[in-house]
Amino acid sequence: MDAGTWATLVGSMKSAYAHGVGEGAVPRPVIMPLVRGELVGLVWVRPTEPGADTLTGIAALSNIAAAACADEVVLAWETHEVATTGRLPAVGPAPCLNMVHATPDGHVLHRFPYRVESPAGDSGGKAVVDWEPAPEPRPDGELPPPIRAAVDYAFTPMDLDHPNVFGVTVVLMEEEGYTVRLTESLDH
């Protein structure tokens, strides 16, 4: 992935998180598969029940990447949100937007910690995200188990007997409640 695409994805996720926190909730975990450097789209985890269902829902984000034959993926999640809903210990700083860039050869973990400022007169009554300095990216940094599973399975070829594996995967994921936003640049 080129530096411009990475900067765009980071900027987009930071903006989404700032907006979500301002509205009182962080965005759900999201996967962004890429094929030959082109973004396929964004898929947010379906609504889940706390515990095992959350873990399964996040891990299944890999299906869209596998169906697209992605050669790299980016996943984004919030430390506290995944730990709480997955009933897991928090891995890393909290609150924190985490983004992992992964290929079949490994991954690099990027962390973007933030503070939430209480609503003030000039914020329209909404909480405001104050981004703190980001630590250095961590090659092969520790990932929460469901994120690790999504990364691992994103590059496992799907064994689905259908002429349009990608198309049927999109439909099935949407039916399960995943939010799917595809780009128009990739023709599957």
DSSP strand content: 25-35%
- Please give the alpha-carbon distance between the first and last residues: 20 Å
Q: Can you count the beta strands?
A: 9
Cα-based radius of gyration, to the nearest Å: 16 Å
- The outline comes out as globular
Helix count equals: 6
Percent in helix: 25-40%
**Largest sheet geometry:** 9 strands, antiparallel
List its traits.
188 residues; alpha+beta; nine-stranded antiparallel β-sheet; 9 strands; globular
Description of the structure:
The protein contains 6 helices and 9 strands, in the order αβββααβαββββααβ. 35% of the residues lie in helices and 26% in strands. The mean pLDDT is 91. Helix 2 runs parallel beside helix 5, helix 3 (62-68) packs parallel to helix 5 (145-154) and helix 3 runs antiparallel to helix 6. Strands 1, 2, 3, 4, 5, 6, 7, 8 and 9 form a 9-stranded antiparallel sheet that branches. The protein is an alpha+beta fold.
